[in-house]
Amino acid sequence: MNARLGRALTLGSLLSFPAAGHGRTVATLAAGTLVGLSVSALLLVAGGYPLGAALSSLWSGAFGGFAEGLDTLRDATPLFLVALATIVSYRAQLWNVGQEGQLVLGAIFCYGATLLAAGLPQPLPWLLPLCAGVAGGALWSTPPALARVRWGVNEIVSTMMFNYIAVFLLMYLVGHVWPESSATYLQTAPIGAPAHLPAWNAEGTLNAQFLIAAVVALALAVLFGRSVLGFEILSFGLNARTSAFKGIAAGATCLKVFAISGGIAGLCGAVMLLGTQWRLAPATLASGVGYSGIMVAMLGRLHPAGALLAALLFGALNTGSAAMQLEAGVPSTMARVMQAVLLISFLLAQAINQAQPAKRGRDA
């Protein structure tokens, strides 16, 4: 049994999305989610918190009204974008875990571009920084990709190291190049209003970030469903050696995958800056969105629809946790614990689901 679970727990097998009609698979995943929520409820009870009040405040804080729903979408959108970036690289069996750093570099490039684009006619004050964010994330993903292609350096190690470099670079730039002299915290001056993403309400919470995320998701659907590059990426991910016999250059494909994945992560950083934060601040920008987005992609099994649902779930936990703390006294960090429990339960459900067919095949 342990050997079967070990084979089932390989990363590639856990991240394959079930085909439509696999009722047993879907039921197993639903059971895993239910177990995760049940364990989270038990943790709340064990901590001495009122379960009913905690869950009620969590729901009302995430979906209690139009404003709360927008807050949930606001928190879910960056997670969804990072998940899309993860989907691109992981479908190619390239384990990019540098989304946090690529997001940060995207925001840095974006902020610099807002300074250069100030005074230009609309939509350039926000469109050019948005493009700069994509470029920043793509460029930051290039050195690990080159190291993988040229010297076979493990991309998990290299992209993780680049995350730390990106955060320290952000702190240096905010503290020494773009500091806000009157600020108590380490942050830059806010960007000008013309650089804000177009919004459809006075608070700016209903803005173009949702539309941008939808466009990226549709673009990836076209990429993987109707393009030669998408076929090359999927073929490379299924079997890099076999794809070489089809004329698919492994090195070039690797560089393209990292550029697309890093570009989407950089776009996420730009969207966060232009749509919700409006200034560079390490405490809020480098807050773990890149890592949480990877979890969202895994929960969604590398499928955009699944990633969207997982992002909404994580966004609801993030938004509702503030209400849980105020109304039920539950620490806001409990949301992180609940996210981790859900992920572990989900992965165990995947492992059990994939171990059972192997057992039946040997018993037959």
UniProtKB/TrEMBL annotation:
Q: Which GO terms describe its cellular component?
A: plasma membrane
Molecular function terms from GO? transmembrane transporter activity
Keyword field contains NADP: no
Top-rank taxon of the source lineage equals Bacteria
Keyword Metal-binding belongs to the record: no
Location in or out of the cell: Cell membrane
Q: Which Pfam families match?
A: BPD_transp_2
Q: Where are the membrane-spanning stretches?
A: 33-51, 103-120, 126-149, 161-178, 210-236, 248-274, 280-300, 307-328, 334-352
Q: Assign the protein's first listed, main location to one coarse class.
A: membrane
Cited InterPro entries: ABC_transp_permease
Q: How does it sit in the membrane?
A: Multi-pass membrane protein
Any idea which UniProt keywords this protein has? Answer: Cell membrane, Membrane, Transmembrane, Transmembrane helix
Which named protein is this?
Inner-membrane translocator
